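Retro notes, item 3 of 5
We never archived the inputs for the 3-isopropylmalic acid complex last cycle. Fixing that now. Sequence and ligand:
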Amino acid sequence: MSNPSLLILPGDGIGQEVMAEVRRVIDWFGAKRDLQFDVSEDLVGGAAYDAHGVPLHDDTMVKAQEVDAVLLGAVGGPAYDDLDFSLKPERGLLRLRKEMDLFANLRPAQCFDALADFSSLKKELVAGLDIMIVRELTSGVYFGEPRGIHMEDNMRVGVNTQRYTEAEIERGARAAFEMAMKRDKKLCSMEKANVMESGILWRDVVTEVHADYPEVELSHMYADNGAMQLVRAPKQFDVIYTDNLFGDILSDCAAMLTGSLGMLPSASLGAPMENGRPKAMYEPVHGSAPDITGQGKANPIACILSFAMALRYSFDEGAEAARLEAAIEKVLADGVRTGDLLSDANSTAVSTSGMTDAILAALDESL
Ligand code: IPM
Ligand code: MG
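Structure as it came back at the time:
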């Protein structure tokens, strides 16, 4: 049987630096755990625009559809700010999500003990925090029609449409309930049913799906209250299910609670392929960070943890994923820190590759 295939799309800015570190981790699993992958690499975002004049080449899209999993770094940068909307780096990412139909975006917000002091909240509110946000990723206001900027009465009008079918809400809800079943069996669904019809439908459909998961304790919350509760008492949540735009905002908020955006991975999953694996793309939650690009300052952990999610969700290697996560936890407990993380007299400042050196050493120790 051939090796599972990975398509690596480093993208822009620190995406390229952190992905180079992920490749070292992938090589470690090949050499030491006999987990071989066929790795290919291609362009996305500004890098693709520079080479091809589009943020995602059609050939890259075809490759992404064929591989077992895509690993993406980050897209965007100031050089591309003035491009036409359809050519912006983000359009490459959104095209991948849409055409691969990656409807379930899993965004864990987990607070590492060693970093609890770095949260913007008091330590006792976040120590041990472990939330999973399931964000619907292929619909809603990100993709709804009509959209655009047009003229009305000599005035420009900007239009976007929040649109959800019940099938879209349902398949995401099933992913969220399945996730809750594997965790603490608690799901909170967030929308604005007090203001939006799409929110009313959301609440109805999630309630209907609940009938198939009676063991899960389901609650509903308006998304604004959800944001407030996330910063008031985040540990009340286990799994949160919400739409594309609310999920974008709430996941950034939840991420900050854990101490650093530089730490958080994500998985975007679609329907099963012929080989039984879900269509999948893994990416760090952080962006391309142009301000620190090329300086060896970026924290590679979010991207490395994204590979851990790939091991777990695409390749059924949960034990190896846990090995990698434990190695990262150990390195943090030992005080190894990139510049984005809180340091003190006992910690050791490292560069991007220095962090990977430490993680690989901890992986060696785990054998
Ligand atoms: C995210 C990002 C993207 C989004 C951008 C880069 C298009 O903020 O993945 O959260 O809005 O979904
Ligand atoms: Mg975002």
